Amino acid sequence: MLFSKAGEYGLQVVLHLAAGQHDGFVTVRELADRCDIPFHFLSKICGRLAQAGILHSSKGPAGGVCLARPATGITLLEVVQAIDGLDGFDRCVLGLEPCDDGLPCPMHDHWHRLKEGVLEMLSGRNLGELADDLLSGNTTLNKEKTPAG
Amino acid sequence: MLFSKAGEYGLQVVLHLAAGQHDGFVTVRELADRCDIPFHFLSKICGRLAQAGILHSSKGPAGGVCLARPATGITLLEVVQAIDGLDGFDRCVLGLEPCDDGLPCPMHDHWHRLKEGVLEMLSGRNLGELADDLLSGNTTLNKEKTPAG
DNA sequence: CCAATAATAGACTAAAGAGTCCGAAATCTG
DNA sequence: CAGATTTCGGACTCTTTAGTCTATTATTGG
Ligand code: SF4
Ligand code: SF4
């Protein structure tokens, strides 16, 4: 709907990483297991995130990945940008040439406002805040819903 | 981003049809030409729209398609529903199981509001109003931007 | 009825997205 | 240094979406 599968996975992992308060590296394998993401696929995604300077990575035993910067300095927007790119946000809803030069179709304004909303959602708060939100206990991320039932 | 290619085409055509105030049938070929959509592809799309009761169609000479109901009784939501379905609107942004049972992740509220916005955009106004908007002259749909330049 | 026309249906091809596999290269341990 | 471990890179397969082609059916006009 809004993000590619790779984008979704990237967000999940980065959120997971921020909320996990690990000190060292976490292996991609472990992340894949925890988040139930195909390992090799996630491998690639982490590669892109590393290249984009969002993750640090180290090979070999005791290696893995971790956030490259303090979580408070990373926005979700960076993450989706690194994976999906931001082109989609410049596109017309109807797939036409962008015609915002004063001749908008009836949907343009509404759509534009929605896009702004998404961008705001992605850039408004940083990973740190979201992680705090997670850690405060009234939110979950893992698929396994509290097995209390 | 938001709709499939087929969905985008469907919206274009239906909007075009509503604004074109044709009395009889319009051939799919003509629609495809005007909107610059692959003919055979649009053929299928119109098929689905016809099955969904949004278009009427007639074979043979002087045949073609036309809106099955007055434009004021058709919403964009019906159109995308007929083509893309509405499943995407029930999905979680992160691709997880929906967990709105009181344990929302930090993005849920924001995303939910955005989805509502899209649905409102699609269902809020009917084809007739949009067509009027088009006809009033301050909006365009065709790709060929006013060749005044 | 006959021929032309246009939608309909379904098989088919092309391209993109999602996911897998394997062979490096780097890093740690001993 | 040897061997285990883990990321990195590219090639590969599978699935879905996009787009093409062909045959069929219904309709109109002569
Ligand atoms: S005005 Fe309408 S057709 Fe043009 S870019 Fe905006 S949404 Fe698309
Ligand atoms: S709460 Fe978060 S993870 Fe759960 S369905 Fe909503 S957006 Fe998705």
Could you please describe the fold and organization of this structure?
The structure is a homodimer of 149-residue chains. With 149 residues, chain A is mostly helical. The first copy, chain A, has a domain at 5-85 and 126-136: Winged helix-like DNA-binding domain superfamily/Winged helix DNA-binding domain (Arc Repressor Mutant, subunit A). The first copy, chain A, has helices at residues 5-19, 28-35, 39-51, 76-83, 108-124, 127-135; strands at 55-58, 64-67. Chain A has a two-stranded antiparallel sheet with strand order 1-2. The longest helix of chain A has 17 residues, at 108-124. Mean pLDDT of chain A is 88; it is low at 144-149. Chains A and B meet through helix 1, helix 5 and helix 6 of A and helix 1, helix 5 and helix 6 of B. The structure holds iron/sulfur cluster (SF4) (2 copies). Residues 92-94, 96, 98-100, 104-105, 107-108, 111 of chain B line the site of one iron/sulfur cluster. One iron/sulfur cluster binds next to helix 5 of chain A. The structure holds a DNA duplex (30 and 30 nucleotides).
